[in-house]
Design brief:
alpha/beta, 10 helices, four-stranded mixed beta sheet, UDP-N-acetylmuramoyl-L-alanine:D-glutamate ligase
């Protein structure tokens, strides 16, 4: 099967503590009723979610994992293989003593309060040489008219190198700018020295990229002008319950969030990943940007309403469009 999409990003393990009555104060123990160990990482999520919309073998995952002695690395790897994703491009390095794969820890209170912790691992060591290693795969996808989906769950210089290689190969890029440490002051401008066909930030990420706060269509339009002037062809800014804002040359629109029955345990984790995956699937099917964005936003909203990160499938979105 000819691959139509490659995803570059993180392969994590999510440790999720659920049903906590409160967060512990200094020196306090708080007991919770449930814990879940799940595959995660924006890149892994996107690859698994996109695979649900394409044929087996049409999605390839590019990233790094540590082969730890406890076998935890198998959690994200097995999840992708079960989803029909090509995992051959994933580098699996032998772990040193006491090394673990990248971990994300989520603490969820019964009242909906949430906090999270991120323990960096091999994702942060993805190098330009690692990207060059998969050049033949990227060239094949470019030849097939496919798409490279990227997150920024890697060193920024590696992301810039990847964009330069995609430009050289004529490979279209769809970028989710999430993944860089939220506390860090980062100059994102070198990313825009290379073509980005589709950019999908959330409102907070759009502010990091432009310095402009996004609250509604008017303020999103200001940020969009700045990003489109840097060569972005299509921009979709998601904004939670407010929906999303789409922009391209001569086009600006607001997509309200669909009215859905939202359970009290709803989690936003994975919503943006689901949105990007469906946006890519719709573009590969030849849908116009606005129609593709509408489907994508509906899928992301549905992801918010279901437990866990099971991919939303085509029939589920058709029911609400």
């Amino acid at each position: 099967m000819t691959p139509l999409a490659a995803v570059i990003g993180a392969l994590n393990i999510d440790l999720i503590l659920q049903g906590l009555p409160r967060f512990a104060r200094k020196g306090e123990q708080v007991n919770g009723p449930a814990v879940r160990l799940s595959p995660g990482g924006k890149g892994r999520n996107i690859a698994a979610m996109l695979a649900a919309w394409l044929a087996p073998g049409q999605v390839s995952m590019i990233g790094k994992l540590i082969q730890d002695d406890r076998g935890l690395f198998r959690i994200p790897l097995d999840s992708l293989e079960s989803a029909g994703v090509d995992t051959d491009p994933i580098l699996v390095d032998r772990a040193g003593p006491n090394q673990l794969p990248t971990l994300s820890i989520f603490l969820n209170r019964v009242d909906g309060g949430r906090t999270s912790y991120y323990l960096p691992g091999q994702n942060e060591s993805l190098s330009p040489a690692d990207i060059d290693r998969v050049r033949p795969l990227l060239a094949q996808i470019a030849e097939a008219g496919g798409i490279l989906l990227m997150t920024l769950e890697m060193p920024l210089n590696t992301a810039i190198h990847t964009l330069a290689l995609a430009e050289e190969l004529g490979l279209r890029v769809m970028l989710d700018p999430g993944g860089q440490p939220p506390q860090a002051e980062i100059d994102f401008s070198p990313l825009f020295d290379h073509p980005i066909a589709w950019l999908k930030p959330n409102a907070a990420e759009a502010r990091r990229l432009t310095g402009l706060r996004v609250q509604d269509l008017r303020t999103a339009n200001r940020a969009a002008k700045r990003l489109l002037s840097r060569g972005v062809q299509h921009l979709l800014i998601t904004n939670g319950a407010k929906g999303a804002y789409g922009f391209s040359a001569g086009e600006a629109f607001h997509l309200p969030a669909p009215v859905l029955d939202i359970p009290p345990e709803a989690e936003s984790t994975g919503c943006g990943d689901q949105t990007l995956a469906v946006l890519c699937a719709m573009v590969l099917q030849g849908k116009p940007f606005r129609q593709a964005a509408q489907m994508a936003v509906h899928a992301g909203s549905l992801q918010y309403c279901q437990p866990g990160l099971a991919p939303i499938r085509p029939g589920q979105v058709d029911e609400v469009i």
